[in-house]
Amino acid sequence: MQILRRKVLEASRRLPLFYAAHSGRAHAVATLAGAAARWAPPATSGSLAAAPWAATQRRGVKMLGSDVKLGNIIQRRGRIYQVIKAQHSHQGRGGATIQVELRDVDTGNKLTERFRTDEALERVFVEEKSFTYLYQEGDTVTLMEPETFEQLEVSKELFGKAAAYLKDEMKVNLQYFDGRPMSGTVPQRVTCTVVEAQPNTKGLTAQPQYKRVLLDNGLSVLAPPFIEAGEKIVISTADDSYMTRA
């Protein structure tokens, strides 16, 4: 019993030293943490911590000139450009090229460039968001964010020639760069109504393979000879070509 009492007494004497030692360590750690917080540089609007998307989306990937498409965002000579027109051509011995019209994202200035189809370019990543088309007034298109129901007004020019396919409740996408919408896209397949169609000529042995039809959005496209006014057909918005009956 006396031995047990002696061990308890010795242990009780060591407790203050134990707590003092560990308390000192904790105080030292807290002091270092506070100093680190005071000396750490504050996050600014241009830092990666403050705007991670803006920082990462500027890291592009290599693409060939032959892959350049309308709406692409590319980096060239230290500037960021959006492709607003693209036309492929072949110049004999000179090889195939693509002539593009570019718009400077920051200044809005436009310029024309010609790339070789095998020329390496740097494409910049963009963020894509989905919206619902509501209506159009003049050159302004009103869209709605499907989850928050917030409305957004953008220029019809963002959709280019595809703006002709915009319809009520259509799901569309906007491509963003640095928080600004740069371009818009519509579904790849859209159903349209034929309002006018060239009549079939009877008595001829050779019927034309395709004929011109006028759609309800004002576009004129080629369709098979059996398509008549009033029918609904599916059109590829990429090249305005007939795909099938709806």
Structure description:
It is found in: Cytoplasm. Pathway: Protein biosynthesis; polypeptide chain elongation. Belongs to the elongation factor P family. The chain is an alpha+beta fold. The longest helix has about 40 residues, at about 1-40. About 15% of the residues lie in helices and about 40% in strands. The chain has helices spanning about 1-40, 50-55, and strands spanning about 60-65, 75, 80-90, 95-105, 110-115, 120-125, 125-135, 140-145, 150-155, 170-175, 180-185, 190-195, 210-215, 220-225, 230-235, 240-245. The termini are far apart. The chain has three domains: about 60-125, SH3 type barrels; about 125-185, Beta Barrel (OB fold (Dihydrolipoamide Acetyltransferase, E2P)); about 190-245, Nucleic acid-binding proteins (OB fold (Dihydrolipoamide Acetyltransferase, E2P)). The strands form three sheets. The protein has a six-stranded antiparallel sheet, with no helix packed on it. The chain has a five-stranded antiparallel sheet with strand order 9-8-7-10-11, with no helix packed on it. It contains two helices and 16 strands. A hairpin with a 2-residue loop joins strand 10 and strand 11 (about 180-185).
Distance between the termini: 98 Å
Number of helices: 2
Strand content: 35-45%
Within the largest sheet, what's the order of strands? 1-6-2-3-4-5
H-E order: HHEEEEEEEEEEEEEEEE
CATH class category name of the largest domain: Mainly Beta
Whole-number total of structural domains = 3
Structural class: alpha+beta
How many strand elements? 16
CATH topology of the largest domain: SH3 type barrels
Largest sheet: 6 strands, antiparallel
Summed over residues and divided by their number, the pLDDT gives a mean of: 78
So, CATH architecture of the largest domain?
Roll
Q: What coarse outline follows from CA principal-axis ratios?
A: flat
Seen as an oligomer or otherwise, the chain set is single chain
Radius of gyration: 33 Å
Helix content: 10-25%
Keywords: Cytoplasm, Elongation factor, Protein biosynthesis
Subcellular location: Cytoplasm
Domain Translation elongation factor P/YeiP central: 128-182
Protein name: Elongation factor P
